Amino acid sequence: MFENNDKTNINDLGEFGLIQHLTQAVELTEKSTVKGIGDDAAVLDFSDKKTLISTDLLLENVHFDLRYVPLKHLGYKAVQVNLSDIYAMNGMASQITFSIGLSSKFPLEAVEEIYEGALIACKKYNVDLVGGDTSASVQGLVISVTSMGYADTDRIAYRSGAKEGDLLCVSGDLGGAYVGLQLLEREKQIFLENPQIQPDLEGKDYIIERQLKPEARKDMIELLAKLHVKPNAMIDISDGLASEILHICKASNVGCKLHEDKIPIDPMTYETAREFGLDPTVCALSGGEDYELLFTVPQADYDKIKGQLDISVIGYMTEAAAGCNMISKSGNVHEIKAQGWNAFGK
Amino acid sequence: MFENNDKTNINDLGEFGLIQHLTQAVELTEKSTVKGIGDDAAVLDFSDKKTLISTDLLLENVHFDLRYVPLKHLGYKAVQVNLSDIYAMNGMASQITFSIGLSSKFPLEAVEEIYEGALIACKKYNVDLVGGDTSASVQGLVISVTSMGYADTDRIAYRSGAKEGDLLCVSGDLGGAYVGLQLLEREKQIFLENPQIQPDLEGKDYIIERQLKPEARKDMIELLAKLHVKPNAMIDISDGLASEILHICKASNVGCKLHEDKIPIDPMTYETAREFGLDPTVCALSGGEDYELLFTVPQADYDKIKGQLDISVIGYMTEAAAGCNMISKSGNVHEIKAQGWNAFGK
């Protein structure tokens, strides 16, 4: 990934030196941040709002492969993935802590890139980096991100709030991140067999970006507020549409009817899935990592969302006894099963 | 550490199954917890208090050695270490998130022990476990803990609040955790050379516990409140007394005079340090991991704290130009230098 020649050894800086160096570019802009980096704990002021908190662990060779993930993208994605959980509560993200464990073979320049990516994400999403931990790792690269945010009590959307008759909606399109990953894995294999061959990713920018540089849907939270829509239930799509639908159904004690032909799939995702011999619908259902928002709204809100190009109504919620089913394009009924990504490989 | 025979393979549970299994014992008792585990983010309500947040990363073979750290102690300590940062703001800890990355060679029973230790700590300190992440690790064991808490604005003690003339105080005693570590390392070496020899730790319970099972000083925060003492500055001692004093001096732009003969060192720490040919004062200054609280109070508060057996006045703050010095037992003046533990080994 990088050469150690002419690079700065992080051992020369020491832990405090490294933290100071990395955090010098940190700016605080959120009004809820009272005190950021530099004390035992950060101090935040959410006044009359509820505090939201979520955390993610990203481990080398489990969640990312440094052979094709650029470090700056990795820092960016680590933040996005975690912010997405705050937006999935229908809240606004406002702060993160960012911890890294890295082996001393990492030159300073490499750590800087990860951090730079994280800070670009913070800036773009108006989030303050207020703390973290920096440590040596005798194993691979470890990243842990915790996000905080806030919401008015009556705006918070839990997984458990879906009601029978609600419309099932999703933002953006699905399956792209997974198909992008297949493309990157294929090129990695080709490269490993013959390092002279340059990766062929031409024209595939969109799905590569979906995998390497996902965007949490802050804009969707803002749009829903503008449309005066309060979702009854909401979750972000990290493990695949099927798994997330089942989470909502279980937590809300409802069933659902999902229409396959309504699932939004980008043409490039569709075509590339086909090239790989994959069913695009399966990629959307089980691929994961799209970080779109899945939510249910009362039928009465249909008029408010129907003109929105970035929101697809993909089905509706039923009584629990009817189960969780997908109506296929050919009209068959299939039970929805979770085959989402599992960190333990089962 | 453990055999895989007759143990439950975590792969059989899958990620969601593992989370469900581990979290079934979680009880929520904090009134500021609105929603704990089970949604995209936890929801907390600190009403008119400020929110405090801190995070730590603990990595196998950097922060702990599974050859002598019992897993339950590891879970317990991981929580304590992080709560300590909230208390060091003169606040009350109320929630944690607890993330684990573990290789699939870990049987379920091993993960349960780590979790059990974490939950014992939560229960003892009235802290709710409200979230986390559980992942496979192809490397060693990874633990990431984030703590939240709260404080009234006018009670928060930053590192930067120390004033010239303040008394420099410390809770408990110092150096024990470091000397306990030396003892464990020695017994590990003996064991590695001859596995038939049982570890000889008899009569050393106190310093072994200081290393393996530290207690964050919540009681000290409660005591200071009861005594109507508001520290001007506060920090917890994770890297050693010297390093923490320098943090306060730098952040507060003051100097200090530390009296060696006032540094509280337990007799067992003292004797065992001597057995190892170590200077007990150096163990206190640079050993770290004691998780005691270092704080400064106005001289006017002296009468309020002087009768407290668990608080030692070890010096006082001076103007910055006078530097940070220790007056040795023989009356010599030494500049205080940080030789605290550095994760990057320098």
Q: Biggest interface between protein chains, with counts per chain?
A: A-B, 76 and 76 residues
- Quaternary status: homodimer
Estimate what percentage of residues of chain A fall within beta strands.
15-25%
* Spans where pLDDT lies below 50 across 5 or more residues of chain A: none
Count of helix runs of chain A: 10
- Largest beta-sheet characterization of chain A: 7 strands, mixed
Overall shape of chain A: it is globular
What topology, given as strand order, has the largest sheet of chain A? 9-11-8-12-10-13-14
Radius of gyration of chain A: 21 Å
Number of domains of chain A: 2
What are the secondary-structure elements of chain A, in order, as H or E? HEEEHEHEEEEHHHEHEHHEHEEE
Please identify, by name, the CATH architecture of the largest domain in chain A.
Answer: Alpha-Beta Complex
CATH class of the largest domain in chain A: Alpha Beta
Helical content band of chain A: 25-40%
Number of strands of chain A: 14
CATH topology of the largest domain in chain A: Phosphoribosyl-aminoimidazole Synthetase, Chain A, domain 2
Cα separation of the termini of chain A: 30 Å
Structural class of chain A: alpha+beta
Task: Give the name of the CATH superfamily of the largest domain in chain A.
Answer: PurM-like C-terminal domain
Round the mean pLDDT of chain A to the nearest integer and report it: 90
